[in-house]
Model the fold of this input.
Amino acid sequence: QVQLVESGGGLVQAGASLRLSCAASGRTFSSYAMGWFRQAPGKEREFVADIRLSGLTYYANSVKGRFTISRDNAKNTGYLQMNSLKPEDTAVYYCAASENGGIKYDYWGQGTQVTVSS
Done:
């Protein structure tokens, strides 16, 4: 089992950048695929990006080219670099860990708020 804690959210203006971090503890972080999801007010949670054990990355079309997912297994930490932020990126961002390569996410953090003003 792994525990996840997100940080790095905040209030920024459109066009700015933020880097979210996801600190993992418990079982070896490197054995999990890691993903980022977000949920805006009144909307369902949606996939943002993930990184598989192979290192392959996948992105939602809405963030492709602006967001970059990465991980540092030595530090048990995952990251989401978000550039050129838009007001529609406003949401609570969650990191998650998958025991089955990203098919299903089993462990979730508590979320961090990202607010982008226009």
